[in-house]
Amino acid sequence: LAKTTQPISMDSYEGQEVNITCSHNNIATNDYITWYQQFPSQGPRFIIQGYKTKVTNEVASLFIPADRKSSTLSLPRVSLSDTAVYYCLARTWGYGGSQGNLIFGKGTKLSVKP
Amino acid sequence: NAGVTQTPKFQVLKTGQSMTLQCAQDMNHEYMSWYRQDPGMGLRLIHYSVGAGITDQGEVPNGYNVSRSTTEDFPLRLLSAAPSQTSVYFCASSRGEGLNEQYFGPGTRLTVT
After folding, report:
1. Could you list the mean pLDDT of each consecutive 10-residue stretch along chain B, which spans 113 residues?
2. A chain contacts of residue B103, beta-carbon cutoff 8 Å
3. DSSP single-letter state for residue A105
4. Looking at CA atoms only, how far is residue B31 from chain A in angstroms?
5. Cβ-defined contact of B99 to A102 (cutoff 8 Å)
6. Confidence band (pLDDT; 50, 70, 90) for A102?
7. B47 and B55 Cβ atoms separated by less than 8 Å
8. B98 in reach of chain A (CB within 8 A)
């Protein structure tokens, strides 16, 4: 069964680049990897999604190597408002109904200091 | 657009009681899902639906029932609440399927005593 593993926490300073890596084994070859951000007392919010190589949007980049056993979320020049928990999401097949099962990582708590 | 709405925001139940958590979305999304979030466990998928009349189990479905009679609504029923169901519950919706961008509701904090 697929499993997603992330570091529990990370610290950074304002203006630095932050990279958060998620390991995900046994994911389907044609499924996306998706990342979410969550602030306290709120639902998660979509950040970025990718299938392979590199994807960039206005807030983040996502790097996925050719073997797709991991993905790295890159946040350029973080600010205090980026302090949040970040989750990766992948899908496993073999149980969970007709669409498999979506597996969130346990989350990485990013603390950005001034 | 209101997006995804959930009611109630907070609920306290006694063991054995039943209740329904409400979820509605106004984005005409086909896919809707329920997650529970426990400290240190991330979000775990309970049930999902790919359209009206179609539901399926996720990772932790035991103790929960769902139905999808309309595109907009996806209620989650606890038939006989247990302390192990104390958690924060999130409903989400997306276009197409669950790996697409999901829009989450604000959550329901449930305590079972």
Report:
1. 93 97 97 94 92 93 96 97 97 90 96 97
2. 46
3. -
4. 11
5. yes
6. confident
7. yes
8. yes
